[in-house]
Amino acid sequence: MSFKSILQDKKGEFGSSWRKRFNLKFSYGMISRSHRVVQDTSFRIDALKQSCWANVPPELLREVLMRIEASDDTWPLRKNVVACAGVCNNWREMMKEIVKSPEVSGKLTFPISLKQTGPRDFLLQCYIKRSNQAYYLFLGLHQASTEDGKFLLAARKRRRLTCTDYIISLNSENVSKGNSAFVGKLRSNFLGTKFTIYDAQPSNTGANVTKCHSTMKQVSPRVPAGDYPVGHIAYELNVLGSRGSRRMKCVLDAIPAPAVEPGCAPTQTEFVDSNSDSIPSLPLFGSKSGPAVSVQSGQQSGQNEGMLVLRNKAPRWLEQLQRWCLNFNRRVTEASVKNFQLVASPENGVAADPEHENVILECGKVGKDVFTMDYQYPISAFQAFAICISSIDSKIACE
Amino acid sequence: MSTSTDNNASITQESGPSAAVQDIQKKIVVRTADGEVFNLKEEVAMEIDIIKTFFQEDSISYETVMPLPNVEGWEMVKVIEYCTKHVELKHKVDGYKERKAFQALFVQNLSTKSLLALTNTANYLEVKYLLDFLCQAVSEQIKNKDVDYVRELFGVENDFNDEEYEQVKAEAPWAHENLNNDLH
User: Fold this and answer.
1) Are A217 and A269 in contact (CB under 8 A)?
2) A12 part of contact set with chain B, CB < 8 Å
3) Mutate to test the interface with B, among A53, A72, A131, A172 (most CBs of B within 10 A)
């Protein structure tokens, strides 16, 4: 389906759609013995002027939409699902019900999927391309491919006096804070050792962590296009100084530590136009068993209570190779101090088991300006992208 | 002569013989909205649940002409065509290829609007396998159409409110995605 016409639609204009009249002809005929076998197969199409699809039961429409969703499950065909959600209110609601979140389905469907937690059982394979002070995130469309992927997010670097900002946007051509495609930003300190991830929209506003629900409405308080801190990343040298790999620590404010267990990480369901004055209502759900987390603006990474902490998996020194090595399952082909795997830190109360550590995010170099990025529950593509940029751009422990 | 009578007698079943018909096969008669009358072979008619229910559950005599006020003549022709083929293929062990070829031909000359009307009818008549097939065919058709065309086809309007419309617009790049990997 083409969406060009939607961009030309103005408010209040409904195009040339019209409804056909539906005439029911009730011919309760008499019991007749005039049996005439019709063998002529040339049917008259003008008869169909009297039938109207608009009167068909919603379950039929649902059947059709479900089939589209099921058959177009990978990109680029997945665009058809997005297009169907743009036809009208009814279609949109139905399609949003049919489409499951990435956590459940393992698929990215709408732009909001980038703010929702990744799949539970496997790593979603993406890749990042670096070009001229900017980074571009793509979804890999084929196993281990780093070409021809589906574009997801772009990040543009802006160096300032005391820090560096990376603006993250859905729009690859116009990466700025000033439009509705602005998703969030990553801010680095002067040394490039501490980073903060900011979300353009709040995930919670001091409310208890709510249960994941696919119909949960987004809360949008009246604040300007936002800067809501949702994560902090810190880099340190390890005891071996710059001869060893760096130590990474990520604290994700918006995700409660219990999310690491089979639990529930908060997830967003709609982008809300930061310029809109409306405040959608939030149906309150009871908080999941676990500490309540409140997000306050400007909170620094001092307090980690109840927030998810990720640390990089320590590589092992392989004597025969004279190198530090991590098992990336062939997803990474070039050695680099920027390569990492993040796992849940024991600080979360999760038992540390080095043999079976669940990698939540991994990133590594495969080419001069190409990096693979694989992520899964409980982080989102947006958070993963920001964390990876911080590693790729961080200068610590680099010769 | 007595032999033929015996033959006729042995074929006759308990539930109302349609004696008026000349040949030995039982026929069910329906009349569509536009007044056309169709003779269906019993085994084909019984594929159509609404007809089956009418005659079997209510024990109505086969002499009754069943009215189908929501069905047009041309639609009935197509439904009969599909059900007849389905019955024929039921007895075949390896009918997959033949079924696929038949299905392709079946929808080949149907406009999208006709396809929609026929789907509606299959739903009304309660022929599940035909309905499944047609829903699939409709979904294939929608995918390649402009959103305005789809709205007109389905008789729906762009009824998004401002907030929703902004979201829809924001999703537009994902809705007509082309995989251009060029960076700037």
Assistant:
1) yes
2) no
3) A53
B83: tokens are 């059900």
* CB–CB contact A47 B158 (8 Å): no
| Helix (H) / strand (E) containing B118 | helix B112-125
Closest Cβ opposite residue B74 in set A44, A82, A85: A44
* R_g of chain A computed on alpha carbons: 26
* Chain A closest-CA separation from residue B155 CA (Å): 5
Is B178 in CB contact (< 8 Å) with chain A?
yes
Of the listed ranges A239-253, A358-372, B62-76, B164-178, the least confidently predicted one is A239-253
C-alpha B109, offset from chain centre: 15
User: In this complex, do A89 and B179 lie within 8 Å of one another by their Cβ atoms?
Assistant: no
Q: Greatest CA span in chain B, whole angstroms?
A: 93
* pLDDT at res. A58: 86
Q: Of A74, A77, A96, A75, which is closest to residue A85 (Cα–Cα)?
A: A96
How far apart, in Å, do the first and last CA atoms of chain A sit?
51
pTM for the structure as a whole: 0.75
Residue B19 sits at φ, ψ, to 5 deg, of -65, -20
Among A3, A36, A84, select the one facing B172 at the smallest CB separation: A3
Q: Is the pLDDT of residue A343 over 70?
A: yes
Question: Exposed, middle or buried: residue A164 (CB in 10 Å: 0-12, 13-18, 19+)?
Answer: middle
Q: Which two tokens stand for residue A16?
A: 């040339």
Of A29, A86, A148, the CB nearest to B181: A148
Residue A54 pLDDT: 58
Each residue of A300-315: pLDDT tens digit? 444 456 689 999 988 8
- Among A96-100, A123-127, A290-294, whose mean pLDDT is lowest? A290-294
H-state helical runs in chain A: 4-8, 58-71, 79-84, 89-98, 102-105, 381-393
How many CA within 13 A on the CB side of residue A23? 9
Burial bucket for residue A89 (CB in 10 Å: 0-12, 13-18, 19+): middle
In this complex, do B154 and A41 lie within 8 Å of one another by their Cβ atoms?
no
Bridge partners for B127 per DSSP: none
* ipTM higher than threshold 0.95: no
Name, in order, each residue with C-beta under 8 angstroms of A300's C-beta and a sequence gap of 6 or more. Answer: A232
Q: B127-181, pLDDT tens digit by residue?
A: 999 999 999 999 988 887 788 888 888 888 899 999 889 889 989 999 986 544 4
Strands (E), chain B: 27-32, 37-41, 65-68
What does the pLDDT read at residue A264?
A: 58
**Closest residue of chain A to B39, computed from CA coordinates:** A37
Alpha helices in A162-314 (DSSP H): none
Contact B154 A131 (CB under 8 A): no
Token duo for residue A316: 């092992």
Mean pLDDT of chain A: 74
Of chain B, the percentage scoring pLDDT greater than 70 comes to: 82
Percentage, residues of chain A above pLDDT 70: 65
For residue B40, what is the nearest residue in chain A, using CA coordinates? A37
